[in-house]
Amino acid sequence: MLGISRSSLHHILNGSAIPSVETLARMVSLWNVNLQVTDGSIMTTMALTPRMYRDQRSDHSRVKIFLCHASEDKPKVRQLYVQLRDDGFSAWLDTEDLIPGQDWSQAIRAEVKKSDVVVVCLSKNAVQKSGFIQREISLALDAAEEKPEGTIFIIPALFEDCTVPTRLQKWQWVNLGESAGYEKLLMALRARAEQLGYEVTSLSRKIRGKAIDRFAKSGSFRSAEQNARDLCKYEPFSADEMNRILFAAADNGQIWCAAAIPDILERLVSRYGELAKPEILQDYLDALNKRH
User: Where does 61-196 sit in CATH, by number?
Assistant: First the structure.
C-alpha cells in the first residue's frame, strides 16, 4: 500500500475496484481516510496523518551524509552508518541503500551531489587503493567547489593512523579510533546542521550526555582530566546534566587525582551550580573539602 498514490486510492475507493476489508483498514490507518457510503458508492476524503506529516518533515530536516570508503573497510563503515542513523542523520551507504536494478555508478554520483556532508573514511587500505574510492573523492571535491566558503562539506575520518591524501589535507580530519573521535564528528555534523538551519537541540543534548558519561567513567586521573576539559566544550548545561556531573565528581575518586579538575569544576559550578539539586551540590562540596 505504501506505493499507491493518493489519486490511485481515490480511484480504487470510488468504484473502479473494491478493496478488501484489510486493505480498507490499512488505507484508513495510513492515509487518514474518511469513508462515506452514498448510493452504493464509497466516497472518500483524505489527509496525511500527523505521524506521516512528522515523518516527511524529519526526512527533509536531517543532515544527508554520503560515506565514501574502500570496500575493505565495509564492516567499520556499516557500523558508522548505523551509529549516524541512530543519532538522527540521513546517512547513505551503497550496500544498504542501493535498489536492485539501479545503475550504481549513476546513483552514487547523484547521492554525492545532493549530500550535505561527505565523510571520507580513511584507512591504510583506502589511502593506498586505486579505483572507485578515488573517483568518489573526486566527485566530492567537485561538489565542494560549488559550496559557499566556510561550508562544512568534506570531513576526512580516520579509522586508523594513516596519511591523509594531499588533496584532502586542507580540511581538518577526525580520528574515529580515539575515544572522543565519534563525538568530535557529531560536533562537526551539528555545526553543519546549524548552517542548514536544522533543529539540533536533541543532537547537542545527546553529545553532551556522552561527554558526561565519559567523565563519570574516567578510569585514570589522566583520562579524568582530559574528559573534564572536554566537558567545557559542551556548555551550557541543564539542571539534569549538572546533577550528573557533580554526582560523578563526588562518586569517582579518580576524578580528584588530577590537579586541574577542581578548577575546571569550580568554573562550571560558578555558572551552573545553582541548577543542581542542593543535596547533590552539597555532596560535591563535601568531596571537594576532603581533598583540600
Answer: 3.40.50.10140
